[in-house]
Amino acid sequence: MRKLSLKELNRVDVATYQQQEKTPIVIVLDNVRSALNVGSAFRTSDAFALRQIVLCGITAQPPHREILKTAIGATESVDWRYQEDTTDAIQQLKEEGYQVWAVEQAEGSTMLTDFQVDTNQKYALVFGNEVKGVSDEVMEVVDGAIEVPQFGTKHSLNISVCLGVVSWELARHWFLKKENA
Fold first, then answer.
1. What is the tally of structural domains in the chain?
2. pLDDT recorded at residue 179
3. How crowded is the C-beta side of 157, counted as CA atoms within 13 Å?
4. Banded model confidence at residue 119, pLDDT cuts 50, 70, 90
5. H helices of 72-158, where?
6. Is residue 5 a part of any domain in this protein?
7. Residue 18 belongs to a domain with what CATH number?
8. SS3 label, residue 180
9. Residue 7 domain-assigned (yes or no)
């Protein structure tokens, strides 16, 4: 078996990427303290062609050395904005027609394996602080919570891992829809 070269991967350039159709998913980072996790969010968002990242509260913003380290250029391709208050960001997304789901272990949450994706709907996924999770104020205004099933002794996944798992699970429905069209 041979690994593919970068040229063989046939990736588009940044200008082409910015013009292509995006998966109708927005990532909202609610007071994420690690800039390395923010960089990972950019890289994942680029990989799955997600529409946008909204950075809120204490979440670091590009250019930041640690973001750039893990994003590996994705801060140039992925659309992003900063909004101080996460609840204001969520309200704006709802006004734009997004269903807003916290990714959190919560009473009444929907397991990711049971979440029914509607490819005619736009989604915003809120990921919270590495220690405190999604804030209580934000939990009061989201449309629901998605929980990733876990079977070990730890209480949570690292945000960058969780973001990758949940983003892929939702985004793959649009990729499959395109392949079957």
1. 1
2. 83
3. 17
4. very high
5. 74-77, 86-95, 136-139
6. no
7. 3.40.1280.10
8. helix
9. no
Q: Which domain covers residue 125, as residue numbers?
A: 13-147+154-180
Q: Using an 8 Å Cβ cutoff, are 123 and 143 in contact?
A: no
- Give me the residue label for tokens 């945000």: 159
The arrangement of strands across the sheet holding 98-103 comes to 80-83, 50-56, 23-30, 122-128, 98-103, 144-147, 110-111
Q: 52-99: per-residue pLDDT in tens?
A: 999 999 999 999 999 999 999 999 999 999 999 999 999 999 999 999
Q: What are 167's two structure tokens?
A: 């983003």
Question: Is residue 6 assigned to a domain?
Answer: no
Q: Looking at residues 143-149, what average pLDDT do you find?
A: 98
Banded pLDDT at 177 (limits 50, 70, 90)? confident
Greatest pairwise CA separation for the chain in angstroms:
51
